[in-house]
Amino acid sequence: MNWNDLQFFIAVARAGQIERAAPAMQVDATTVSRRLRRLESDLGQRLFEQSRNGQRLTAAGQRLLERAEAMEVEAASIALGGTEKGEGPTGVVRVSTSEAFGTWIIAHHLADFHRHYPNIGVDLVATSGFLSPSRRETDVAILLARPRRGPLITRKLTDYGLGLFASRDYLASAPPIHEPRDLSRHSQIGYIDDLIYAPELRYLGQIAPGLTPNLRSSSINAQYRLCASGAGVAVLPFFVGEADHTLVRLLPETRITRSFWLVTHTQVRQAERVSLFIDWLVKLIDAEHDRLKGETG
Asked: 141 with 97: CB under 8 angstroms?
């Protein structure tokens, strides 16, 4: 049996589709299929069943995945230098989270985790969208909504607040804003409607009826940059907007509350590398409570 074939197997198990796994392995789908057939032939077992949505693990495939991921962790620990006993926990934790939370909260403090656990690597996937913990694409997912199904362990991580922000330069030459309906006279910054990846990001209607952005981006960091450059008014998480002292929080009584949910697959939650990261993250959230809620003033 070839270890490289196991890597293809892990990629398909996590992606749930051969077509989705192929780009990650930098090959075409035909190559992935050939590798899987060879692995099944070597083991004398069927590892996947074809489903309407792609490839689904058989019972034998699920058992193999657990063993293959243990091998993957061990290989990663060797690459990180964790080959000697007493060097502490090893492995790699993949974390999927929203762009803002990943950039402004986790990344800002990740050096602290690395100092405590130098042999645990972290893959921080902070994008507009999320990897799936159900399909084992990630070890830890921080989502905007609680998943309704799947072999998952879920808990609310924290609530967080959002508010209206604009730069001082923009406000110096713009009409005054005393109430939400005044926003109709201003340039609005927000998401591209048909590219919004989660309904929790549709919040302009909560502020004022008919409010729509005319400067749009799928990236919250790009929206922040537009706001900071004086392009208009944006709804930003408090932990983003209040970190920039050139921005002004508008209409303090107007605020939106959303939640982050911590999600892991049942079969990885007890892994030491995952448990240590989650413990660290929970402590970080406690320390960042005021920033998240917008109560720093």
From this structure: yes
Task: Determine, yes or no, domain membership for 49.
Answer: yes
Entry pTM = 0.73
Query: Are 174 and 256 spatial neighbours (Cβ–Cβ below 8 Å)?
Result: no
Q: Are strands 233-237 and 188-190 parallel, antiparallel or unpaired?
A: parallel
Task: State whether 49 and 170 are in the same domain.
Answer: no
- Half-sphere exposure of residue 101, counting CA atoms within 13 Å on the CB side? 29
Strand partners, 125: 96
Q: Could you give the CA distance from residue 203 to residue 194 in angstroms, rounded to a whole number?
A: 14
Q: pLDDT per residue over 157-202, tens digit each?
A: 999 999 999 999 999 999 999 999 999 999 999 999 999 988 999 9
Say yes or no: 58 and 137 in one domain: no
Pair (133, 270) in one structural domain: yes
Report yes or no on 295 lying in a domain.
Answer: no
DSSP 8-state assignment for residue 186: S
Per the structure, the complete domain to which residue 119 belongs is given by 91-158+260-289
CB atoms within 10 A of CB 227: 26
> 165, 236 in Cβ contact below 8 A?
yes
